[in-house]
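Bug report

Summary: structure tokens for DUF1738 domain-containing protein differ between web form and batch submission.
Environment: batch mode, default settings.
Steps: 1) Submit the sequence below via batch. 2) Compare with the web form result.

Sequence submitted:
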Amino acid sequence: MQTVPTTKTVTADIQKEVTDKILRKLEQGVAPWVRPWRTVGKGKQGGALPHNAVTGRPYSGVNFLMLAMEQLDRDFSTAGWLTFNQAAAVGGSVRKGEKGTAVYFAKMQDRTRTVQDMVTGEEREESFSVPMWRRFWVFNVAQVEGLPAHLAPQAGLPKGEGVEDELAAIAQRCDLRGGFLHGGNQAYYNVFSDKVVMPQVEAFESVDHYACTLLHELTHATGHEHRLGRDMQGRYGDESYAFEELVAELGAAFTCAALGIDGELRHADYIAHWLTLLGRDQRAIFRAASQARKAAAYLLGELDGEGEQCTPLPVTPQEERVTA
């Protein structure tokens, strides 16, 4: 008798699937979020971020990582992706035998639980929501024939345009209570004084390298209790510290990609810690990617005063065909 998978087991399978892919990269000494947009082609279908080729909307979170890895592994020259049905709708067709790449979405399910009041001892029902993950399939533009000459353009700033102004606006948006200082030879964020310290721009190989380092530190700053309020109490070597460094790396990667910044991220010292973290907790990469996306949205001015996205999330897609 065949067992029908439950939503809980499907979610667990997806978490393992994604985590295993990232662990394999980390074991090779590669952080898959480091400049995944670098080799993107610059033709009509080019774009800096993994994005939906029809709508132009960038993928984010875990899907950003999965599609970037797939693009590099398979040497696709474009970051544009679309579903089987989207390809058909614009007159294209997926080449016979081509395999799709899984991307993931979470549908929130409402649950209730019984909790006990710590003071009165009375029991009451409490509502909460849990994410139930699903996968669907997309194809790279390079796997599709007969597409129109131009698809939706990639959203975001063209490389090199407006980056300095954008960095200044991001730093101002953070409104660091301890200030933003230049000097010395170390880059760091001090959560207690709420201060970012950076070496002078001239100390870096390029302005892009400076920008990536600054965005890493400013992503840390978004975790301050007066901003997004993440757990910032970890110490070097423990899992809380490794998790926050993962959030900062991903947040900087998402923000760099959105701005078209092509610089090095600081990951080498943390790979061993991330291997341990992800090996123990298959939900960690999902939580880190979610918090990093929120941090990037904060830096880019996409959140309102309550920390909620100003723009609606994309409509949940339907599952589609895996192969042509």
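Above is the batch result. After comparison, the two runs are identical; trailing whitespace caused the diff. The chain has one domain: 7-299. Residues 1-5, 36-47, 152-158, 305-324 have pLDDT under 50 and may be disordered.
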